[in-house]
Structures
1.
Amino acid sequence: MQWRSSPDRVRTPHPGLRGRSWRPSHSVRSRLVLSILATSALALALAGGTVGAVQWAAIDGTADDSLRRGYQEFERRSRGTDPDTGLPFADIGPLLVAAMRYRVPGPYETQFALVDGQPFGYSGGTRPVELEHEPAALAVISGVLVDEGVVVRDVETSVGAVRLAIIPVQVAGRSASGTFVIARAVGAERAQLARSGTLYLGVATLSLLVIGLVGWQLSGGLVRPLSLLREATGHTDAADLGSRIPVVGSDEIADLTDNFNRMLDRLEESFLAQRQLLDDVGHELRTPITVIRGHLDVLDAADPVAVASTRALLLDESDRMNRLVEDLILLAKVRQPDFVRPEPVELVEVTDAAFAKARALGPRRWLLEDAGDALVRVDPQRLTQAWLQLAQNAVKYSEPGSTVTMGSAVTDGEVRIWVRDEGRGIAPEDQTRIFERFVRLEAGRRVEGTGLGLTIVQAIARAHGGRVEVVSTPGAGSVFSIVVPTGADAAGREATPTEEPWPGS
């Protein structure tokens, strides 16, 4: 895993996180590792148990098959001829010798023969069991009669369980009787399987240890962001929202970390907006309150002229404070999700309505230069509010009788509305400052206002995902344009600007 960070997403870690040893989240980490170990142990146990059960059953099945083939081969040979004479077997001894000579015992097997109850001989490379020294086995063998046929029995010996295929033998015309025995040490096979199981258990235990260590290390990397989130939330308060957690990887935890950082971004912006609002209110209301109090302190209640003058001043300052508070409240609402409510509207209708309202703002020569004929998705009320604010500024900073031109158009998927005046113009170095809160240029200080008008215009444009553009020449006037996207849902028809300008007035 690689650290993934971005300057616009990840900020300096909280001071409380620097230089601190990381404390793992024992709860989550331990549960995760224990779950892995439990699952692994269950899987190993099921795998080992299943394989062991299959092999245990295979031991019995293989033993039965081997013994069956052995006594079937003995029966075929007993009906054949003596390889030494080419004649049928005339005695038990040659038959038993031939059987033991020509049949090779399998693993864990031995062949044993008795004549008249006495050991006659045996065959087998490594004898897993010496039946002549096993009384229990000899007793079972001796108890099998000739007329019983082949008998398969399990007996306990000094080497464990032994499965016997007991074949009584008698040659016609001979009084002697014999017994051919095939013995398979199933107990030894089972013991070998048990040793393999013990080895498997040791390997499984070692595997669980390795899994636990690896799981502990890997889980540490997984829960580390959670631990950082926990510590960051513990240190985060209204006084300090600057901590951000590095985003590691691209998994769900990385997404959670990123969402947490984004949440802190929103909280920080909200708190900053609140602080700015309080600072702005405190700063801007201090002056009118001081003016009101100063006039009240020197007011002569017995002087009707002074009372009337003070009353007019108080009403004017009250109106100014009211406008200021309304503008500040409006700016405080900018960050709310429902500040703008876009809807499909005809741009030409919005343009017509805004132009009709603007003409009442002052005695100017009002011209509607163009009106875009397109269906767009905007908030018509907010857009009109910003448009009229630009028109109001054009009236404030131009002379009576001058021309103020308005217009709208749609080009390249953007709505452009503008106001052009023949006023004082704005110096290039001031064309950015005018959008800051309470910034009023020296040339406009004699004009009534709060210094928030263009800030509100810019906020409305940005809420639409757009911008405000200004082109101005000192002494020649200015053109203010609001540019916003047409909106993806406004594709009722192709957006095209109007070819012919509307007539002015």
2.
Amino acid sequence: MEKVIRRALVSVYHKEGLAEILKLLHEQGVEFVSTGGTSTFIEGLGYPCVAVEDLTKYPSMLGGRVKTLHPAIQGGILARRGHETDQKEVLEYGLSLIDLVIVDLYPFEATVASGASEEDIIEKIDIGGISLIRGAAKNFEDVVIIPSQADYATLLEILRERGARTTLEERRHFARRAFAVSSHYDSAIFRYFDAEDHSALRLTADETKPLRYGENPHQKGVFYGDLDRYFEQLHGKELSYNNLQDVEAAVSLIQDFSEPTFAILKHNNACGCASRPTLLEAWQDALAGDPVSAFGGVLIANRPIDPETAREIDKLFVEVLIAPDFAPEALEILQSKKNRILLRQSAPVTADWSYRTMLGGVLAQQTDHATETTADLRCVTKATPTESEQADLVFATKLVKHSKSNAIVLAKGGQLIASGVGQTSRVDALRQAIEKARHFGFDLKGAVLSSDAFFPFDDCVTLAAEAGITALAQPGGSVRDADSIAAADKYGVAMVMTGIRHFKH
């Protein structure tokens, strides 16, 4: 059912984009009701405006905290047009019916992010605006609610097409948006007060991206979040559910490397990675780690893609390529495959907490930001790692942190030469890694090993030493650490303990 807009209450913080809406409403004969700065803005455009105070017979009070919280305003919004008793009371109390409410709330989140004082933050908790939004949304059958600046454009389109008239479907759409805005706003306020107490979980995401399907074609999939915050998609098909999981794993991994590095991921695990003086060398050696698994993988670099590197990448089928930038010629080369997804990463992913649904609830934990350096490597054996072995141990430990447990990573000369991931036995993970390294022609003599957790027995140390591995890194902390240390000393292998476990399930 269409409803005509005859009176609009406008009370906004952000006024950009509002002028054209007001112009069209004025041309349709709509009366404006407003407060404070918004009223001044409307009158400055040359349109008459009724002050809220003229309807309430009360001035703005308590430093502006109380303006629209009055039956004359709320009643004009909430009155049901087809309800006999409501309409009798409208006449009895002389209420002015309001058909359109345009609100833009105080910028609470922006104020918190600015580092403002608590006093300033508290004053940015909007009370009247939230009440206007909820009241108008509740009465969506009769009232249009525009709950934020983000919705101005939709209203403008309606006004241009049909004038000051809305359908029930449109009003219901805006009501849904209104409750999305109010719930997000309240959640942000709660998180501020809750701080590090974690007494309850309130997460919101305004951006929604329907996916082709979930992990499998018979499963629906949706992404809630703002990808544009981190990436600009330059080319290719839409990102899938599985693509997004690999993208997150890739960007989390690459953030631990400062030197020119290229990584290749498959099913959230690195199957190739190398740090080199040039990006081309890094790509070539990352690919050499496992050229079979690299097919259809997700690639990421921490340096702009140059044309020479692009030409080499173009020889391989890849799903996604992520980089901080692409040279124009490189982009032209890589766009030759129409479905290849090219993402320019514009900002690091800095979430402090990660979440996972579990048993009808949610598991939450702090993001693993721990990244070992040579200073964290405590040697516990008679043999000490050489300078190059220390560098490789740090390299391998960065990778094992991002590999599914149980995980073993083998590295040599700043190159991932093999890993064993997701095994129920750490021994199996090591055997898998050794076999894979040999399959692709790597000499394990002088290689290093990193484990995501301690060695409860000496079996992994023995296997590693027999394969030619000369240095090992593990967190330590097993009641049988002495057995592993003794085995390392027996074989003349250097072992360091980091004190940090990196389980990733």
3.
Amino acid sequence: MAVNYYIGIDLGTSGLKGILVAENGAIVRQASASYGVSYPRQGWTEQNPSDWIVALDDVMERLLCDDAQSDTNDITNNESGTLNNAKCVKGISFGGQMHGLVALDGRGEVIRPCILWNDGRTEKQTAYLNETVGKQILSDCTGNIAFAGFTAPKLLWLKQNEPQNFEKIAKIMLPKDYLAYYLSGVAATDYSDASGTLLLDVEHKCWSQKMANVCGISLQMLPQLHESFDVVGRIKPQIAHRYGINDDVNVIIGAGDNAAAAVGTGAVNDGDCNVSLGTSGTIFICQDKFAVDDNNALHSFAHANGKWHLMGCILSAASCRKWWLEDILGTDDYVADEQRIADVDSGNVIFLPYLSGERSPHNDVNAKGAFVGLTATTTTAQMSRAVLEGVAFAIRDCLEVARANGLSVRSTNLCGGGARSAAWRQVFADVLNMPVHILTTEQGPSYGAAILAMVGCGAYSDVATAAKRIVSVKQTILPSPQNVAKLQTKYEIFTKLYPALRGLMS
């Protein structure tokens, strides 16, 4: 009996990853391709969507061609037989970096490079939205206030600084949706990704006319709205032929990276929690009913399961460790760093992880990172551990906001590149004072995207059913009572440092 396969694509900040997954969740093949980030000015980050397409074509070829080379380091093939017929692929879906502005003209051509999620050029526009339009109006219209990384401030920046490009806009897209558009010709998005534009009425799942007016755009410029598991079209015949697959392969719109990662870790039921440690860090808490954080410190977004979630995002997570080890210490030996900090107490050293400003819960593009508590006897090993703790403290800041709003979270999944660190896993269990679950399959958004493809193609009736059947826990890390007490004391100091330092370093 032929096995049906599904493809999940993760469009990340530094590269694109694809996985080929069997209907039972077994990963058959995976491949990845990298691309660069452009920094036209300090604090600006851009990418050319054409680079994403080159990466997608490369990854698809290696996933589907029998004689192509896939990424061999992490291949898991639990299926009997071999993949020798790409004609068994039924659907493809996406997870991807959120908030980016992809602007197309009337011919469907990209007008300018995509302004990315972590771009900091929109401070003035963000302030205008929050202070002049008003946070209450924004919250009433969308469930959220403006953050510098959101799409709406980027549109205002483009209107004010590149009016000729703004006038050319016929269609506005998010990064992963440009891939779906390339494959299907359909301009669509999903509610989870659209939630991060500040253009969506998240509660009622429709575009906000009032916010479109504020940004000077028409609703016709915005893509069709769908649930994350909806089929939006079929793959173009010419692309199907090039990939060697049938031209009836479904294109499922997918979800923003955090919602897709949550699906991939099984965080799909009310109260479920997922922490992701990628370039940025997020805490994702599922809700069956729409709710808004009282102070809009957390995002109120739609979930890929058809419901909602609260999410906190810190702009620097695993990137903090990369900066510390590679840029400051001049090493990329993460294994050696794990060994040297295994039994190290960071002492009084505290790290503030605001290397790129901060989003949740402070919403401050001018926030700065810092080491506090250094002495003449402080070691680099202590500072390494303080970096891990500081990122966990920042995530806990977001968790405390959710708790203050009545949400009860008793455990969390941990995923992303940072989750591979055994030391970091234990730090999170101790800082959050809850069990931390590590999943059998740690593929982040790409795995969630593959699950969404299965649901879209009818292999499973809904996202919760698919996640229950497919996702399993490999390891649970319990908090150490002794460490919990120490880190609670440090966390209380951590919470006082940002307010004390704010304004001193701009």
4.
Amino acid sequence: MSSVHPVDERLPTGKLAALGFQHVMVMYAGAVAVPLIVGRALKLPPEQVAMLISADLFCCGIVTLIQSLGATQWFGIRLPVMMGVTFASVAPMVAMANKTPGAEGAQLIFGAIIGAGIISILIAPLVSRMLRFFPPVVTGTIIAVIGISLMRIGINWIFGNPFGPTAPSIVNPDHAKWLSEVGSMANAAVTPAAGASAPLASVVPAIPKGLSIVGSVPNPKYAPLNGVFVSFVVLASILLIAKYTKGFLSNISVLLGILIGGVVAYSMGMMNFDKVGKAAWFDFVEPLQFGMPKFDPILILTMTLVMIVVMIESTGMFLALGDMTGRKVDQPDLARGLRTDGLGTLIGGIFNTFPYTSFSQNVGLVGVTGVRSRFVCVAGGIIMIVLGLIPKMAAVVEALPTVVLGGAGVVMFGMVAATGIRILGTVDFKNNKNNAFIVAVSIGTGMIPLIAPNFKQWMPHDLHPLIESGIMLASIAAVLLNLFFNGAKGGSAEETIAAAKQADSH
């Protein structure tokens, strides 16, 4: 009888590689989604977006190794955990990117991430004791709002953004020509030709600064039928694969749907591989490629609040994994795992990528396969590092049209919302009707930035980064309302484990 615990079992190399690759495939689509979203929100050139993807894959691998292998007595839960970028951080980062695009925006984002990573490392032991403030009614609501908030991105990928080149309407060329002619007449009146009088000065006043014409003509780049068709093919492929396959193929249905969509898009002339051909086969991931980060206290606070939510979710994942693998997870174990979330986020900020958490779909895969060895995830981490060092892999992902990603985004982000709903299904609404108020008001609060994005225009400017994220508002509302109605008595380990086992798609 072997005395080695199944978690610490070292499987044959070939089996480790195969199972590790399986874990990578399950998380790959979710891992590359965030750098694509944020990179395009920052309006970065394609090669820099590809660089973000490479950095993300590389750091996924590094942080996975730390979490599954362990590093000193302070870091690593030492369970079969795959680490990836959390979707919870997307909305605040997109808000930062929209406000300050380009390299300067990247510096602000990575400064906030580095700051939040350091703070998360320091507060990890405290967060591991905060379960009572995050019962399923709170975590389920927060995760549902995360999914609902992200759906906007997936839908915009399909049809086009409401502003910019893909807006629903464009300026009528005749109207633009008229305004240009009026401007020329006004300028001529102000500075008439030699010997000419200037009677027009009183007839054509100068055009006010900032005057523009509202779009009134349908934009052919918004919701083109060929793009909508490709998105439909991706969505249909994912659903068919999920329904008619089992096991591994079903688990990677999103990735397979993206691959099918890429083939269809290429056949329709919507995708080319020019940038892939120019990309190198091997390159190192360099830190701080956008220059020195800028540390804004409000942005750091915003990202820290995101990390607290992320660490609470990770706590549930760790407890669920402990239950699934038969290894007891105590408070010091939780603290080590949560410190690694913070360390991963710090590493991510330094290497031009984003906050990290345990990927729940991989936790679900442990339950499906029954393989409990943490060295499988070690193998997966090594594979992710290798992929991060191959720029051509990132260039292929970057080359995908947004319509391909849109079809997948509807599933990925919708499943996050569905996960929150499933967690809420464990909540007692019958005997505690106040729980309904918590969910209703928190979701409503989280929708404010989506429905009324200008609600903050008369509020102090410094508060804008903190309140323009619906996820932040919903999280704060859910915690406070739960304290008001239920006190701090909820959130037992058993409830947390049950809720985490529902979160297999986030």
